[in-house]
Write the structure tokens for this entry.
Amino acid sequence: MIRVLVADDEPMIRAGARAILASDPAIDVVAEAGDGRAAVDLARRHRPDVALLDIRMPVMDGLAAAEELHRTVPETAVAMLTTFGDDEYVARALAAGTSGFLLKAADPRDLVAGVRAVAAGAAYLSPKVARRVIAELGAGRLTRAAAARDLVAELTDREREVLVLVAAGLSNVEIAGRLFLVEGTVKSYVSTVLSRLRVRNRVQAAIVAYEAGLVPPA
């Protein structure tokens, strides 16, 4: 069962998210919060698999809450659910350690798919957000490609294989099956890859892989 915390200052949005997620029998919304500080407190208490946070909330916004969760409840993956798809918000959310970025205007199936992906240890960006990120990367790729290649050069062959599969959006279980490894070994490899690439999450690792030329912009 995937245990989810939903945080949004609008009760109707929380109710809608709960109803959509309830359509999947493998997802259980264990807590709701109306502000970022309450979300952090509830996450510490319930230890959900995924915290679904709005960006603009009172007391503490979703970006600050994501950073706090990354520090204090690292086992809880964070996904942003917001109406704001501006590049500034996307960049700040990724820098805060967010594993998913979902738009409220997206298809409800996108929400379920995103929560499932993030809970499985993968990364998930709504298609519109993904296109925006790729466009931004393409605009400045030449200035960052050399640095990305230097970082990737520090990886072993096996770590590079794992990075490519992470960048392809595979979960730890899927990577384990592809490389004939146990899931615990894959988790260790992923942790090492993130450390050596000096990034905080799988989305940032995928960006490095793209900039280094290991994967196509898809």
